[in-house]
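User: What would this chain look like folded?
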Amino acid sequence: MVDVTIDSLEEFLVARLLVSLPDPPVYGNRIYPLRMPAQAQELVFPLLVYKRISAPRIYTQEGDGSINEPRIQYSIWSKTFRDLTRAGDDIKLRLSGYVNNSAGIQHCFMAFELDQWEEQTGLYRKMLDAQVGWKGN
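Assistant: Here's the prediction, encoded as structure tokens.
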């Protein structure tokens, strides 16, 4: 496991994405919150950008069920379609079906996948959404 202090669900999932299972991920440690760094022409690809796009709470008739179902979106950026699909496979391998009760993660399902060509950047982009059942905020 990666030696980090975990302050949020997103950070925990990033640590999970860095695990070698059995090979290191094709995106290496190039994982950024919310957006790519500004100097995109100097970056090494593929890389990964993540953000929380929703966070519905589960409620019962008694009130708050103490479970969130945040949706975390991962955008892979790559110069080649081959690396794009390999990076997507790496993410799905590490997150799809993942459970970690000690971290409060009850389930992690891949809920959405879309491949695109971004004309403005000249890069391929894959969006993957993970729906996570999580006992946290």
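The radius of gyration is 16 Å. If you want, I can go into more detail on any region.
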